[in-house]
Amino acid sequence: MTTVVVAPGVGALLREWRERRRISQLELALRADSSARHISFVETGRSRPSEELLLRLADHLDVPVRERNALLISAGYAPRYAETSLDAPTMSTLRAGMDQLLRAYEPFPALVTDGRYDILAANAGIMALVDGVAPHLLQPPLNGMRITLHPEGLAPRIRNLREWRRHLLDQMERQLALMRSAPLRALYDEVAGYPLPGTGGDEVAAESEHCPFALPMVIEHDGRVLSFISTIATFNTPMDVTVSELAIETFLPADAATAAYLHRRPA
């Protein structure tokens, strides 16, 4: 039998994604209309997958768009998905739509972040919340995780910081379990190492302030205590790396007092 020489790495990458998803070779083969023998040959480098099969496997393994390009390149194919800057003319409709959405959500806070939690756009509600954050944290690129968890950011004002911090770190851990991202890993290590406000860096006691249906972020602002529920939306079936990593996060008032205050607050 003739062994086909393939670009190094594609088999190992596929095996890594399959193991991340905890799917056997047989199960993946059945899903992708292939055979366990062929999947085994691809993973061990004895067979070169076609571009069509590679994309089909990536689809069934729910591989992020950026990593699909890496798989294609490793197999000797050209990347399929562009990575277009949001400033590009072809993104003008997308930018306008996101800006319209953020403005429409006011007076409630909303923002758009990328895959590293850098803030790409934000409305007036967000800008009001970050008032008083240390200037160095508001220098571009603004990062949502740093602004929230840094001792000179929002952290000292978050009443349930231990719970909210754990929620954010869990969110990052779930992402890291599903994708390979050195920048995201570095950010996680950085923010997880921030000392919590309080004597000697010990965790401050969090007040048990909950709404009945979800964990809120309870934060002091302008002499008041506000409570928000966070929701995150992403784009369906993205065909561009940049778009695939965009997330629109909105903060819904978790109680009537927060909603009433935001509606009364001057624009």
Automatic annotation (TrEMBL):
PANTHER family: BLL4672 PROTEIN-RELATED, BLL5781 PROTEIN. This is Helix-turn-helix transcriptional regulator. InterPro entries: Cro/C1-type_HTH, Lambda_DNA-bd_dom_sf, MLTR_LBD. It comes from Streptomyces pactum. Pfam families: HTH_3, MLTR_LBD. CDD domains: HTH_XRE. PROSITE patterns: HTH_CROC1. Residues 14-68 form the HTH cro/C1-type domain.
